[in-house]
Amino acid sequence: MRDTLHRWATGIAHLALSAGLVWMGHGLAHAQASNATAPASPAAATPPSAAAAPGTASAAALYREHCASCHGAQRTGGMGPALLPESLERLRRADALKVIQHGRTATQMAGFSSTLAPADITALAEWIYQPVTPAPAWSDADVRASRVETLGAKDLPARPAWKADPMNLFVVVEGGDHHVSLVDGDRFEVIHRFASRYALHGGPKFTPGGRFVFFGSRDGWITKYDLWNLTVVAEVRAGLNMRNVAVSGDGRWVMAANYLPRTVVLFDADLNLVKRYDATTLDGKEASRVSAVYDAAPRKSFVVALKDIPEVWEISYDPKAPPIYDGLVHDYKMGEAIAKPGYQGVRRTPLDEPLDDFFFDQDYRHVLGSTRPKTGAGDGAPTAQVVNLDARRKIAELPIAGMPHLGSGITFAWNGTTVLASPNLKGGAIDVIDMRTWRTVKTIPTPGPGFFLRSHEATRYAWADSMMSPTAKDTLTLIDKATLTPAATLREPGRTLAHTEFTKDGRYALVSVWEMDGAIIVFDAQTLKEVKRLPMSKPVGKYNVWNKINRSEGTSH
């Protein structure tokens, strides 16, 4: 352990990109040291693009000298995050270059502009976007070995150590410096702030009583955090590039969706590995990245979308789940009439096209998912489809031009029916669709394409951002849910205004100023007046405990 800690100390001065492991407690950090120095596979071969320029070292040599001690020999992460093309797909190369040059504020990532030649920094920035050969693996043994827990956490009192309504608590993810803030939803004050893993993604997920929350990071880490006692409980690395995590409605299970390796991984609530599902076709001949996994609590199951295979999976955590029959049940020659256990088994729904992402209707019978544009077909427009989980087939195609993104759509009552409203990611509009007929009832114009649409049962408005617009990213459009017309706008001139979340009673709306020197703005949801402003470092999302665990129709689930 002494040698391990010495290597850690040496590596701190040589981080190559964003801070990876931001300390989450002294005891936990010591436990993670042994994982960061676990034996790695052979180092990757140098691709032609990383060849050395005259007078410079090769990118591979530069990486080994300055970066591998923290980011791993195969760039799979350690103290620092994974530096794989899959992990960096949302980080522009120009931004990666700046991080290597100047470091990242409030992290252990130091800049190299004074110690490396510009050509060397450029070579490193190119190198981390090249595929690792051979492709890194992450086995069940790796998953188990990565797990750590905080001693004594299970014996902490079952009551909040702070004075506030635990059901009106907001968990705010600050992407600017990789922290999480806990905000009292009555007084709008920060109760606590703590460091998180790098690049949390997919939104935190809560246990039914609201005490524990699970975070997932892009480089595969799942963190279980005790909100009442303000401490990490346990962590495990489910994969090398993870999309999101889901928590079962009974709080007993956690499931992770991975891009790399191509797996779905089931854990118990203490983050012990239970089962790995390889994301393949039934015959095992084709593998897929996993787009997303969500909990369908009323069905007692997880629902999984595959990015490269046209299937939706339903994995039940109900011990009384009916048996599963794959294929044609009368084809005895193929053994397809032999039932598989329904409990924790994969029930496959075949589709014409894979789903990128999805969400549910309010009774959880239907999956509403986006489909990528078909290459070489027509104008290559994206589509969205409706899949009935009981009939196990697609029943409709949604007539919307933009793709529903992670939790971007909402549902609400309108004119005696229930409608779905979703941002149009290709243009400035909100498409409203009757969920009885699956037909468009109205397309509502907005100043530009947006990412999030949010509301609450107790408010008359749906709040839509235009954060993807270069000219209207500073504008929120409030849509009257009764008339389906724009009723008001809110602006933060020159800044990105996005991601609304409501207090549990719907009286106040919290909105992110999505900037490094950003803030949470609290608005009165009736008068639309600003009530308070809390400085934050790029608050990418905020999540109200009550709304989440009660599956409010106006927020992501």
Secondary-structure blueprint:
Elements: H1 2-11, H2 26-36, H3 59-66, H4 68-71, H5 93-102, H6 118-127, H7 140-146, E1 148-149, E2 169-174, E3 179-184, E4 189-195, E5 205-206, E6 212-216, E7 221-226, E8 231-237, E9 241-247, E10 253-260, E11 263-268, E12 273-278, E13 290-296, E14 301-306, E15 311-316, E16 346-350, E17 357-360, E18 366-371, E19 383-388, E20 393-398, E21 410-414, E22 417-423, E23 429-434, E24 439-445, E25 453-454, E26 461-465, E27 475-480, E28 485-491, E29 497-502, E30 508-513, E31 518-524, E32 530-536, E33 539-544, H8 545-549
Antiparallel strand pairs: 1-8, 2-3, 2-33, 3-4, 5-6, 6-7, 7-8, 9-10, 10-11, 11-12, 13-14, 14-15, 15-16, 17-18, 18-19, 19-20, 21-22, 22-23, 23-24, 25-26, 26-27, 27-28, 29-30, 30-31, 31-32
Helix pairs in contact: 3-6, 5-6
Organism: Acidovorax delafieldii 2AN
Protein name: Cytochrome d1 heme region
GO molecular function: electron transfer activity; heme binding; metal ion binding
